[in-house]
Amino acid sequence: MANILVVDDDRSLSTLYEQEFVDEGHNVALATDGFEALKYLENNRPDLVILDIAMPGMDGIETLWRILGKHRTLPVILNSAYSQYQGNYMTWPANAYVVKSGDLTELKAKVNELLGVFAAK
């Protein structure tokens, strides 16, 4: 069982992710923006972060850099509806990039892959 932080301003999507990953046996915390995610990380250490890019206030790219500035080894999956960010070098430090879809197969596979890789270290 892993602790996952989902950062997304779309509450219905966050709730869907929460339910799916809880059903798989994980604990899930939700944050609606980058500021809330950083505040959560001050007192908590999840095993993995799923991070949206297009969010109000602080976008996911800035949030990614701030997270990795303090938690260099924390695995982060960028999860965006916009595939064009994948080519942006500012997203490259993320451990994975998954384009949002109604089918969560790819996202779940990346979560399981990264949890397995980082648990082995």
Give a structural overview.
The protein has helices spanning 11-23, 34-43, 60-70, 105-120; strands at 3-7, 27-31, 48-51, 76-80, 96-99. It is of the alpha/beta class and 121 residues long. Helix 2 (34-43) packs parallel to helix 3 (60-70). The longest helix has 16 residues, at 105-120. The radius of gyration is 13 Å and the shape is globular.
Helix content: 40-55%
Mean pLDDT across all amino acids: 91
Instruction: Provide the CATH superfamily.
Output: Response regulator
CATH architecture title: 3-Layer(aba) Sandwich
Largest sheet: 5 strands, parallel
**DSSP summary, beta strand count:** 5
The Rg value, from CA coordinates, equals: 13 Å
Supply the helix-strand structural class: alpha/beta
Overall form: globular
Total domains: 1
Give me the side-by-side strand order of the main sheet. 2-1-3-4-5
Fraction of residues in β-strands? 15-25%
**CATH fold field value:** Rossmann fold
